[in-house]
Write the structure tokens for this entry.
Amino acid sequence: MPLRLYNTLTQEVQPFAPERDNTVRMYTCGPTVYDYAHIGNFRTFVFYDILRRWLRACGFQLDHVMNITDVDDKIIRNALAQNKPIGEYSAIYTQAFFEDCELLRLEKPERVTPATEYIQEMANAIHKLGEEGYTYEADGSVYFRIARFPEYGKLSHIDFSGNRAGARVDVDNYEKDDARDFVLWKAPKGDEPAWDTIVGRGRPGWHIECSVMAIRYLGATLDLHAGGIDLVFPHHENEIAQSECLTHQPFSRFWVHSEFLLVEGQKMSKSLGNFYTLRDIVQQGYAPETLRYLLASVPYRKALNFTFDGLKSAATAIDRVRNFSLRLSTDKFPPGVSPVLDARAAKAMDDFRASMDDDLNTAEALAATFEYIREVNVAMDRGEFATGNIASAGALLSLFDSVFAVLTPTATAGSLSDAEVEARIEQRKLAKKARNFKLSDEIRDALTAAGIILEDTKDGVRWKRK
Ligand SMILES: [Zn+2]
């Protein structure tokens, strides 16, 4: 069975292959670099990575474009507040984003395109849309006239016929189900950054950047466009409207979206105190690949509930594969080969591939891996596993790691400095004092996971390294 993916456009699971020359032309919406990316963002970026890796495992080549939104309302607001030029401000968080991606072992797309490098091209596209009557101007800003695109709503499957025509919206953040003419070009306001272009002075809206950069590098029709589920409407709906009115061709054959991430069953938010970046997770003593594994282990179309228990289980699962790998290279096995165990490895690989081909069912692919490891550990204990079986076991581990990429430990993982350990112990003391035992236990567990053993004595807390 070939690879099948759920296409939001058709609402069906469909066989996927690129249109031509075996190359997947794909576009994924990148980060808005106004702050550190949080673990909800990284769920989407890990999904892109798993998708990339499996497309390649299917024998396709990739031409993958991802944008960096380096001009938007939040960046401008924050940069002004800190008295920095927006380029200087956004560079800090662009760099932080790529550092995090590296820690999470995310492959870099073939092309990464910062929006501010394509402003003139965006203005030209808006000008062309204007010539064909798809836009109108109001107070120096240019809006897309949704009424001119009857197919509006075909991705989100929302019926927009006959509602609220002519109302305008010009901010980058939208309330859901608010179908209004969206802004393509924003008139300059106060001391906001602005560019001089064919459509006047100002700056582009958020939606137009993705259309312009995608078409510029990948052509009028992409094979695949991916993003988080929250982008379906209005962002991707707007991308389709602009792009298809520009080229008069379908914008993307496949639209693939990853589901939400919840934290302990709740929406993640700073006000609920359950907001985490990768840096927060690493600071608690977890290796970055533990988060990668957790985010990858839930199939992308299922909501993912992040918990610290889940993170601990992820660490345990990684250890199990690493221990098996270690055993494979250090145990003494009898000579010969067991055909049964070679067949067992072949079956595990078939199951792994079939699961990934089935709309990237990572949970089933992991189940196939761990069933095999469990059975083969028993076979090793019984002396049934022979030197001739090492190759097939290694092949399964390679297949596993080509997708999940967690076998190699991060060099710095677990090496908290003394000061960091002391700081965590102090936080735990405060948590206990506030009778927040859940938090104090979490801190102790995280330290344990980082190889730090705590001992509560009558003279206070003593600690040592494992
Ligand atoms: Zn986009």
Notes: The chain has 14 helices and 18 strands. Residues 29, 210, 235, 239 surround zinc ion (CB under 6 Å). The longest strand covers residues 61-68.
